[in-house]
Amino acid sequence: LYNNNSTIFDSFVDSKYSRYGRALSFIRSAKRDFDPAMKISHYCSALESLFSTDSSELSHKLSERIAIFLKPYNFDPITTFDEIKSFYNIRSKVTHGDSLRSSKVGKLPEESIKLDNYLREIMNIIINSDELMGVFNGDKDSFESYFKKKLLLGI
């Protein structure tokens, strides 16, 4: 991360800052927050930092990319897709000032832990692979190409 200008001394909004480093910043914010809804919001921002290249069809595209990314690691892609979409629904309501049903509010701590576990897996998978660190810290076009091949060609 040091080589990518992605330390605590660098601005995480700078284009040179790595995806991985930016995600760590959002995870750090989530860990400091006590409210599970806000934790989910920060965790979703971490996922966006890792898997997003633009804002079009954000929830769908991220859910799809994460499901495809985790499939080789024995995650059910349908379950992963649905759960990530659900987390994004919570995030959307929280960040736009909307309310949640009481039944959903009671499940927020559990949902926050579940999303935390997804991120732990994702971050560990990436950091333990030089290839993936290259993909996630590389340029936007290479990143898009990587996921297009995984999605359309299964490689």
Question: Could you explain how this protein is built, in words?
Answer:
- The chain has 155 residues and is mainly α.
- It has one domain (2-153).
- The protein has helices at residues 19-32, 36-51, 58-70, 77-95, 102-105, 108-127, 130-137, 140-153.
- The chain is globular.
Task: Produce a short descriptive summary.
The protein has 155 residues and is mainly alpha-helical.
Describe this protein with a few key phrases.
155 residues; mainly alpha
Write the layout of secondary structure elements.
Blueprint lengths: L18 H14 L3 H16 L6 H13 L6 H19 L6 H4 L2 H20 L2 H8 L2 H14 L2
The average pLDDT is: 88
Q: Give the tally of structural domains.
A: 1
SSE string, helices as H and strands as E: HHHHHHHH
- Please report the distance between the alpha carbons of the first and last residues: 27 Å
Computed structural class:
mainly alpha
Major sheet: size, sense and barrel closure? Answer: none
Residues in helices, as a percent range: 55-70%
Q: Write down how many β-strands occur, each being a DSSP E stretch of 2 or more residues.
A: 0
Shape: globular
- Per DSSP, the total helix count is 8
